[in-house]
Amino acid sequence: MVHLPEQPVPSSPAPTAVPTSADVARLAGVSRATVSYVLNNTSAVRISEATRRRVHEAAEELGYVPHAAARSLRAGHSRMVLMPAPRVPVGPLHSQFFNDLQWALGRFDYTVVQYGGIGLNGDEAARAWAELRPVAVVVPDGGLGPRGVHILKRSGARAVVTLGPERVEGAHALLLDHVGVGHSAGAHLLARGRRRIGVVVPGEPGLEHFSRPRLAGVRRALEGTGATVTELPLTYEEEAAARLAGRWRSLGLDAVFAYNDEYAMLLMRALLDAGVDIPAGTAVVGADDLMLGRLLRPRLSTVHIELPSGRDLAELVDRVVRDPGGVPEVHQVLGARVVHRESS
Amino acid sequence: MVHLPEQPVPSSPAPTAVPTSADVARLAGVSRATVSYVLNNTSAVRISEATRRRVHEAAEELGYVPHAAARSLRAGHSRMVLMPAPRVPVGPLHSQFFNDLQWALGRFDYTVVQYGGIGLNGDEAARAWAELRPVAVVVPDGGLGPRGVHILKRSGARAVVTLGPERVEGAHALLLDHVGVGHSAGAHLLARGRRRIGVVVPGEPGLEHFSRPRLAGVRRALEGTGATVTELPLTYEEEAAARLAGRWRSLGLDAVFAYNDEYAMLLMRALLDAGVDIPAGTAVVGADDLMLGRLLRPRLSTVHIELPSGRDLAELVDRVVRDPGGVPEVHQVLGARVVHRESS
């Protein structure tokens, strides 16, 4: 961090008090209830235009903003949808999904808040989320158990939705089945006549939630065919990829499913540098269908993954908030299909 | 979205009431004040171990979680640091920075909340943030004016910090000077003997906050040298890159600063496909120093950008929260240096 010389800090003035609705009421010459009706746009109560204007002007003059928490204390719930931040670095697919979801929930007049939960786990995390009294919670990548769902519901959350490989008791579930991603890749390589298939397993912590089911999917695709699977641990570093490429011939593989496009680009580069012929000697398949994969030569084959739409998820959340009594819904939402290019 | 057949929804049972601290007090046979002291870990008040245990057991049994909002209403402020979500798609650099910041603020016992503000602008956004009564607000990419800073402070925010190209009156500023990024690239290309320099300007909305100052930086580096700058509008699509590459010879350029590594990879691929010799005919420089740039042939030259550390920013936030009266601090925090590889 490059610091500019710091300016001299004068002695602190006494902080001015935060204006309250009582201050607004006093200045406007109305009751606090009237202030609340006007600023929360309550249409049930008839209030004259002149009074409304007086309240708005007083609020403006004092710099008063209603307190969402006070409002949610009165109402018993907020319009806040809380989404814990994913615990692993997110790719462009997830960013796009989150933006869509945020936009779609905004159309239903919800506020989306992403909660930074690094260092919190399980029930402890659920308790921290519950303290904010969200009306709905969308959990992106596991870590929530049935007890956590119970804590959230007891604190007033009407909808708890998980996105992950398995359903959690008491919560609605959008199942993201990464087994299908691996299965697509395995079936494709088998159809291309490959029999000795390596599967990259990233060494970075947190990615095992995705890599394990993908590996299982490849195994399932190959079941009963006599084709073999070899696990290939790999960290996302050039040196690690070069080491793996250096012992490639001794592994005797004719194909590799490289976890995703980024690992595939890393490994394919190292294999080409080591003189491996792609795809003749080894076929390479990634996943995610990033544009960069099309820019490589040979062009990278990949598994195109379809996430649920933010709009569908927003509709589920709103439906459950309005009618929270139903049996938890379960939807299978991850689509996977191979995009065949030159590397396989 | 692939839907499983929906389960039949039984008629909704009446929702059970959310337990309150009064319920906990009743079950534990103590006052509400005692419940509050125990659950908020107030050390100023002497309470016996037995009573503490009774309160915790009652809270556990009822599934009671304190309400952060109620606590912050009493205390006058929360421990919440609010960070509006960036309005443009974030790259891996920003994700890393946000995770660092979250972790560092967590060490100071703050909770980081990212607010999804799509569709809100200026003072309207500031008002929405103020409703949550954060004790500090960190604004990542512009859009906040002096009036917004005032609204936030009036609602009780003790620290308002902006990350951006310019300071905002009343707020602390970490200045991210993207002019320096362009200047580094321009000076490098000039030193490599280039005189007719193209600068990619992405067509995607929102990126102009970064691309305009980078372009200005290249111009500044070339001032008085007789070298020329040509703006090259480009959207992030293969077809657009191919069209630009198709008329490359008519442009008469001998170098291009391609905004960042992703645009550089896209354009370099199109130029190579169009038979342009890199770097002999045209030098190419990106920015961000992504690992993928090293995997290309020729290896991509790039501007390495150093963001402020999450820890330094967390220390600034905590210092200002504890002593909010000082003159706003201004720090220059964006480092930029060229990493010279094969493409320039």
Automatic annotation (TrEMBL), chains A, B:
GO-annotated molecular function: DNA-binding transcription factor activity; transcription cis-regulatory region binding
Organism of derivation: Streptomyces nodosus
Residue ranges annotated for the HTH lacI-type domain, each copy included: 19-75
Name this polypeptide is given: LacI family transcriptional regulator
Keyword presence, Transmembrane: no
A Pfam family this chain is assigned to: Peripla_BP_3
Keywords, in A-Z order: DNA-binding, Transcription, Transcription regulation
